[in-house]
Amino acid sequence: MVQREAGNKTRGERSALSNDKFMVRFLSYRVSFTLIVFVVLLVFFGIFSAGHSFFGIANLTALAKLAPDLGIVALGVGTLMIAGEFDLSVASTIPLSSFVFTKLLGWGTPHALILVITLLTGAIIGMSNGLLVVKTKLPSFIITLGTMLFWRGIVYAASRMSPIGIMAWLEPDAWLLKVFVGFIGGMVPVQFVWFLFFFAVLGVIVQLHRFGNWIYVTGDNQIAARAMGIDTDMVKTVCYVIVGVLCSFMGMIQNLRIESFAANQGVGFELRAIASAVVGGTSLMGGIGSIPGIFLGTLTIQIIDNGLILMGAPAFGINAFIGGAIIIFAVLNVTVARVTGK
Amino acid sequence: MSDKQADAKEGTSAEKVPLVQVPLVQVPLVRMVDIDKWFGKVNALQGINFTVNHGEIVGLVGDNGAGKSTLIKILSGFYPADRGEIYFEGKKVNISNPKLAKKLGIETVYQEQALAPHISIARNVFMGREPTRFMGFMDRGMMDRESMGAITKLGLRIKDPEAMVEALSGGQRQGVAIARVLYFKAKLVVLDEPTIALSVKESQQVLDFMQQLKAEGISVIFITHNIFHAFQVAERFFILARGEMLTDVRKEDTTIDHLIDLIVSGRREIKS
Predict the structure, then answer these.
(1) Which tens digit of pLDDT belongs to each residue from B142-170?
(2) Phi–psi pair at B53, nearest 5 degrees
(3) What average pLDDT does range B182-201 have in this prediction?
(4) Residue A286 to chain B, least CA–CA distance (Å)
(5) For A15, which residue in chain B has the nearest alpha carbon?
(6) Which of A1, A20, A228, A290 is the mutation pick for testing B, counting most B CBs within 10 A?
(7) Domain containing B154: what range?
(8) A189: number of CA atoms within 13 Å, CB side?
(9) In a domain, B17, yes or no
(10) Nearest to A276 by CA among A71, A132, A119, A28
């Protein structure tokens, strides 16, 4: 009897029900804790940074220029982690793409073609990572550790590790500069708009599209996904391609911002991207996480970095704080899961 | 939406044809004839005959290693048989892969493998067959509604389609997996040891689900080594031991003591 009534509830009644439980719901999402910490950190740094410089225009602009670097990569890496795999090779896809981009500029290739080939570089690396992982069935941590070292070796050998400036080949009013490192309204760095763009696109796909559901199921219970006819190898490979393309995009905008190829681009990004995802509530075992969480996670890591420097923390010791933050969040995630059963 | 309608149409037209031409009772839903299976030098199944009628609950009982899972894996397309034939609704079929089995309407529910624990009930029910509105975006309202509908039909009480499967009890999880096959119009549901890890109360719940499936006209193969569970719901019993079918008997023609005696002694009642 009771279940009959529950089944017959109208839409209005059901939404009233969920409004009552809003706080319970809110706290049961892993993202909520990241959001709370994020806001607390904003307030903390706003108050305690020297002369409240954290919220100064100069600092906010710098953050908006720099945060998309790690942010764009983390969105991809986090999506892949939901599907249950890792990609350490991002650290090498970034400089390789930047190198390809620089060479093509030097050869005077049409800019639109440069854009396509650069992004294709990441797509191909991503595809090869994906195929290696699904065909060998080996842990992706090992496979992509291998591809990371392989591609970095290629980049070092090809560039002899020397930086290559690009401004000699670019007109100051080239559209590449305007579209990827310009300012909107003379204020907002366009990189940040790209970051928001990828956040929105991936968010909509991962949370609302059927492919997003396949990503979650693949990471959560691959056997069940297979049994229901989901091609989990395809799902994972596509996620690797997404990561590769995002890395190429980021390698390119970083190149344009620092106005050169640098062989050490991307160093350390593989683990910082994973850290961003973990701080944003993504599980290292796959199947759990969200794009809004990853977005907040990467911003949280970066404002810790930025805020501590503004407060005069020794720049070389920042990693100690970020390391601590990662452990705290990893513990929080597990605790929340245990308490709420979610 | 459109997928489901198409399925529903297919279902009704396929049912109507045999109704007109031949009485349903005379054509079993599934008939497996003289099935042999070898794994290397081990003869896992020896001349097995196995039938399931429309809307019937069949108990497939036997100890571990008796060959129950092998027989079912042949039926659901995971293994090929080395000899023998399979008839589905009177037609000879070659079930060479799991997709073909699904297409025929044979669904297997495995305890561990059915659901993704950290994903909502609605998303689990529609896993891999998500209804979409445009460009592949999920119709989440429909997923919530329809999944709750199927679960309620099964007699299961769950309020929130967005709740994660992890938060459910073992019995409820079985219910969600069974609701899925109910919703997608299976003709035959294979439940592989569905009560093995459950409490007494939860086992009872799962046995009730089977009755619901039967009420919906769906046939059930209940694989178990718990003869007491099987005896509560099944109308016919097949007992397997060491790859041989010991008996094929209707409930009214046997007693629970007789079945236990067969399992223990390994005596064969039917001739090959």
Answers:
(1) 999 999 999 998 888 888 898 899 889 88
(2) -90, 170
(3) 89
(4) 10
(5) B160
(6) A228
(7) 54-77+105-265
(8) 21
(9) no
(10) A71
